[in-house]
Amino acid sequence: MNYIVIDTPGLYAQHRGEVPKQLCVDVQIPAAFGGHGGGALYIDTEGSFYPRRVAQMAEAAVAHCRHIAETDDAPGQREAMQGFTVEAIMSRIHYKRCSDHDELTAAVRVLPAFLRTHPTVKLIVIDSIAYHFRYDFDDFALRNQLLGRIAQTLLRLATERDLAVVLTNQMTTKFSDDGQSFSVPALGDAWSHASTVRVILSSAGTVRRAALYKHPARGEGTACYQILTEGIRDVVDSPPSPPGHAGDRPGSGGQGRLRSRGQGRPESEGQGRSWSGGQARPESESQGRPGKRPRLDDC
């Protein structure tokens, strides 16, 4: 699977966190429905994890899979639904709150031991990687060193354990020589090369877009999506594509499909309980490449 960084220019923290929360649910979809049937670990640095919101997404996923099982009646689907409930989904999301960069680095350091005792975990989320490292550091050399160690550990685990690692990042504003401002991912150029896949989320009014800026097997592309009570969904009537833009238009009822301008197959994407064994209860329930902006006209 992949080591993915999600950058979010101009989106509020609760909107940025919608995607990893949806993934925490989707990674648990049973194999009989084409899913991974795995668990998730959510490392929260901003206090933006809402169990009620995840439960809403889980209810929608369960209802959707139940409808498929009743309609298709494919082998194994009805049996899989017995263990695919809202309660089961919530219990398989392990939650860890990190209040500073020391707690975050310590949490990453013990991940190998955690995964040995929780082998079904197929998704690790850190939301967000930038929060403590942007504001707690004056020594940028030390910051980059710590971030490099975290990146190496996560990339090794993603490879060895065949799991997905999703990190949300923040954006910062820079100014060109002529005084024009533009958004770039936080944490500098060195961090921008640490990921296997980079996705930039943006919004213009009510339209939200996910732009794929880095992938080892795909060209750049965009997909429109919307945030509903049920979770992340395709845009039913997305604006027309600009001339010469190849790819399928997202349809209704599923997750957004990236319309690639290159070759390659899309990667499947994966979906709380605290490490101490209790239900996820965060302390607070509140939050492309440098120089290149998201293309908001691609959908």
From TrEMBL:
Residues 234-299 are annotated as: Disordered. Keywords: ATP-binding, DNA damage, DNA repair, Nucleotide-binding, Nucleus. Residues 1-171 form the RecA family profile domain. This is DNA repair protein RAD51 homolog 3. It comes from Priapulus caudatus (Priapulid worm). It is found in: Nucleus. InterPro entries: HR_Repair_Mediator, P-loop_NTPase, Rad51_C, RecA_ATP-bd. The gene is LOC106816286. It holds the Pfam family Rad51. PANTHER family: DNA REPAIR PROTEIN RAD51 HOMOLOG 3, DNA REPAIR PROTEIN RAD51 HOMOLOG 3 RAD51C. Signal peptide: none annotated. The keyword DNA repair applies. Its main location: nucleus.
